[in-house]
Amino acid sequence: MPETVGFIGLGVMGAPMAGNLVEAGHPLVVHSRSPEPVEALAEAGAETAPSPREVAERSDVVITMLPDSPAVESVVLGEDGVLAGASEGDLLIDMSTIHPTVSVAVAEAAAERGVAALDAPVSGGDVGAQQGALSIMVGGEAADFERARPLFEVLGKTIVHVGEAGAGQVVKACNQVVVAVTIAAVSEALVLGSKAGVDPERILDVLGGGLAANKVMEMRRRNFLEHDFTPGFRIDLHHKDLNIALESGDAYGVPLPVTGLVQQYMRALRAKGHGGDDHSGLLRLVEELAEHRIGSDHLTATTT
Fold it and tell me: Residue 126: how many CA atoms within 13 Å on its side-chain side?
């Protein structure tokens, strides 16, 4: 009999990930604050539970996909949380992006109850979640990683055990630095080229075929060109992730000046009310600074 999997947190990323597990035939028990994705997964064959505790009581493995460290602490460590309902021998897989120290604390609390824990944050955005093509970086014991591998193989294509508890979150912080800086660089390149009279589509075509090629241009091409910043991954969340990276840099004595600058870009957009936009919306700020909207001769008001 396959292990029953609990899944808590059915947002932009969590809902398609849970859907892929149901489609792959894994028995699933789900819980989320929003009723709509819970109802949709119930129609697809999942069972539902009213609390994280009950999810754990009915599952062998519990996956959490939550927005931040406080949410993970509440859902996992709270009075009605996962560990309150988990049994000895269960496995907790936190796929949220949170501070490494919180992942270590969760793993220690789980171990006290005889529950194994992995921190397994992901990269690949909403598209990767939908396609089951995420990159998954996993911290924790090797045996627990192997136990979770069949689930990871449904959710992702690049699956790497990177070290002990907390290591997955450290690597995710590194990932978020590269993604944020790349979005900013692509935005600057598009605005420079467009204001100089070059078609932005042609810029992306050329850059995508050379050393400057990157996944950001591939996966967010349409967002940039159409100024469609419907969130796949919100600026608010990426700003939170860069805070984690900068705090980690401070803890380990690693200067991150470029990361700090891009975080200020995100902070400025949040102050303008765009924190709920997709992180490709960094383009807005570069356009405003240059007084130019890509693909046009004059800036269209997008940042007020």
Answer: 14
Q: Hunting for tokens 């969760």 — which residue is that?
A: 106
pLDDT digits (tens, 9 = 90+) for 212-225: 999 999 999 999 99
**Rounded distance, CA 20 to CA 36, Å?**
17
Tell me if the pTM is above 0.85.
Answer: yes
pLDDT tens digit sequence for 142-191:
999 999 999 999 999 999 999 999 999 999 999 999 999 999 999 999 99
Beta strands in the chain (DSSP E): 5-8, 28-31, 47-48, 61-64, 91-94, 116-119, 122-123, 134-139, 156-163
Distance between CA atoms of residues 263 and 283, nearest Å: 14
Coarse DSSP helix, strand, coil percentages of the chain, rounded to the nearest 5 percent:
55, 15, 30
CATH architecture of 170-290: Orthogonal Bundle (1.10)
Class level of CATH domain 5-163: alpha beta
Q: Check 172, 215, 240, 272 and give the catalytic one.
A: 172
Catalytic residue status for 215: no
pLDDT tens, residue by residue, 228-269:
999 989 999 999 999 999 999 999 999 999 999 999 999 999
Domain extent listing, the chain: 5-163, 170-290
Q: What are phi and psi of 94, to 5 degrees?
A: -95, 115
